[in-house]
């Protein structure tokens, strides 16, 4: 039954998300062929305005696609469980926990696809010969500059990043779902309640992350790296170790937040569903 629910939930969101991401890929190919691919970086005077405008446009595009993905997942979750459609949904011989799990898996699949496509499109847009050729010629030196001992260590770092992307995909969806679930506890203005819940959750998460970074000493290293006055201190910091510390902290916080919010959503849905 879970498999049928996942297929149904995937079909319900894929139509909209497929259109959004096809537009993203087409816009990226257009930008690579007609914008970044035509800029002469070796010229005496680079059109800095065009280059800056291109990157601003595509940053907005990437953010818009990511935001659109979250909106589609949130709207589908709300309409299927907490709107008038929820009356029909709750007549199915399926537990509310099963509905939650199905929508979490379906949304996380698309959240993961969204992240991968954004990274891929950013690479396509920026992979011009003036960048890729020198990088490939000095790849070993580049890896050592980042603080890795060799290609093997760098490959493990990339695999760890992939794991973090997977966890983040689940975490993002569960934050959205928890916000909607908490929002429906309001007797009226459930959508507004969901929005407020989302900002409260993200604010608390940001504060917790900042505090954790301060306790672990990561925050001071970040300030040193980004401070021009502390360039000598930044040079002494192991960049690879610094990145791993951030990723370790992000993974732990994401896992904790995901588990807590998922359990919270599950227990609230078991106790109360507000369809008014």
Question: Secondary-structure blueprint of this entry?
Answer:
Elements: H1 2-34, H2 48-82, H3 85-89, H4 96-126, H5 129-137, H6 139-146, H7 151-183, H8 190-216, H9 218-226, H10 231-235, H11 239-271
Keywords:
single chain; 276 residues; mainly alpha; 2 domains; 11 helices; 0% strand; globular
Cα shape: globular
Number of helices: 11
Could you tell me the number of beta strands? 0
H/E series: HHHHHHHHHHH
Low-pLDDT stretches are 228-234
Structural overview:
The protein is 83% helix and 0% strand. The chain has 276 residues and is mainly alpha-helical. The chain folds into 2 domains: 1-137; 141-276, no CATH class. Helix 8 packs antiparallel against helix 11. The longest helix is centred in the N-terminal third of the chain and has 35 residues, at 48-82.
Summarize the structure.
By secondary structure, this protein is an all-alpha fold.
């Amino acid at each position: 039954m879970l498999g049928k629910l996942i297929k149904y939930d995937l079909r319900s969101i894929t139509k909209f998300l497929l259109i959004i991401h096809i537009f993203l890929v087409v816009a990226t190919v257009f930008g690579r062929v007609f914008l970044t691919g035509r800029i002469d970086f070796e010229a005496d005077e680079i059109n800095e305005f065009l280059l800056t405008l291109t990157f601003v446009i595509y940053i907005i595009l990437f953010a818009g696609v990511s935001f659109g993905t979250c909106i589609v997942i949130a709207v589908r979750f709300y309409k299927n469980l907490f709107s008038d459609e929820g009356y029909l949904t709750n007549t199915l011989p399926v537990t509310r926990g099963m509905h939650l799990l199905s929508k979490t898996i379906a949304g996380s699949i698309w959240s993961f696809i969204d992240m991968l496509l954004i990274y891929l499109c950013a690479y396509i847009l920026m992979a011009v010969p003036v960048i890729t050729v020198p990088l490939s010629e000095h790849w070993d030196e580049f890896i050592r500059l980042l603080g890795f001992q060799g290609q093997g260590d760098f490959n493990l770092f990339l695999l760890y990043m992939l794991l973090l992307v997977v966890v983040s995909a689940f975490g993002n969806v569960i934050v959205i779902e928890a916000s909607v679930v908490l929002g429906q506890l309001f007797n009226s203005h459930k959508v507004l309640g969901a929005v407020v819940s989302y900002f409260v959750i993200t604010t608390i998460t940001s504060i917790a992350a900042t505090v954790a970074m301060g306790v672990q000493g990561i925050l001071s290293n970040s300030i040193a790296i980004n401070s021009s006055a502390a360039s000598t201190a930044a040079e002494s910091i192991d960049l690879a170790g610094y990145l791993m510390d951030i990723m370790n902290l992000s993974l732990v916080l994401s896992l904790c937040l995901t588990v807590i919010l998922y359990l919270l959503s599950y227990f609230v849905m078991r106790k109360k569903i507000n369809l008014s």
